[in-house]
């Protein structure tokens, strides 16, 4: 297991930066990919956003203050990049974010990178009916099992608000699954 403080030191030192960044990629690439994928839904979009996330991390590592865990900081960047990506794409296509996500979910069955069954597809459809913040909270808690404390750092909000959002999201998803 890599020590986070050592990794940050190596990332901010010119001589060790490249090797440290490879370690960082190895450590967090897959987890960040799946977090992003849950937001943007398609593989190609998730790949693009992941690449942008790591570029931003690399460019801004010297401004990382260490007030949160490195992963929380990266998760926040990934979340913001994914949301910005959706906003840009929906603007270009002149549709709402909700419509964009619903279209992506309806295309999942033909996506060679999606290997879920009908139940997982139905869950994805239910998640897209949630407001964006509830989607984020639900995905981070349900799929990634992120603690409310860490989630509060990532989303810059209170733990209480996150618990309420998660509870509402679960209720809405249950209702959706019962009626569809």
From TrEMBL:
InterPro entries: RNA_pol_sigma-70-like, RNA_pol_sigma-70_dom, RNA_pol_sigma70_r2, RNA_pol_sigma70_r4_t2, RNA_pol_sigma_r2, RNA_pol_sigma_r3/r4-like, WH-like_DNA-bd_sf
GO molecular function, one term: DNA binding
Domain of life of the source: Bacteria
Domain RNA polymerase sigma factor 70 region 4 type: 121-173
Record Gene3D superfamilies: 1.10.1740.10, Winged helix-like DNA-binding domain superfamily/Winged helix DNA-binding domain
Domain RNA polymerase sigma-70 region: 25-91
Keyword list, A-Z: Sigma factor, Transcription, Transcription regulation
Official protein name in the record: RNA polymerase sigma70 factor
Statement: the UniProt record of this protein carries the keyword Transcription: yes
Chain ranges passing through the membrane: none
Keyword Transcription set for record: yes
GO biological-process terms attached to the record: DNA-templated transcription initiation
């Amino acid at each position: 297991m890599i020590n986070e403080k050592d990794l940050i030191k190596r990332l901010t030192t010119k001589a060790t930066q490249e090797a440290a960044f490879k370690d960082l990629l190895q450590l967090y690439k897959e987890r960040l990919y799946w977090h992003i994928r849950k937001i943007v839904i398609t593989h190609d979009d998730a790949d693009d956003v992941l690449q942008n996330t790591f570029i931003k991390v690399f460019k801004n590592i010297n401004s990382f203050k260490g007030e949160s865990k490195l992963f929380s900081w990266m998760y926040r960047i990934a979340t913001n990049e994914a949301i910005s990506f959706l906003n840009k794409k929906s603007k270009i296509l002149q549709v709402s974010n909700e419509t964009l996500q619903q279209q992506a979910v309806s295309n999942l069955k033909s996506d060679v990178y999606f290997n879920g069954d009908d139940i997982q597809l139905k869950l994805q459809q239910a998640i897209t009916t949630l407001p964006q913040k509830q989607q984020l909270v639900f995905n981070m808690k349900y799929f990634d099992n992120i603690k409310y404390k860490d989630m509060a750092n990532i989303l810059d909000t209170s733990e209480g608000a996150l618990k309420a959002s998660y509870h509402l999201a679960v209720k809405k998803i249950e209702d959706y699954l019962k009626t569809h």
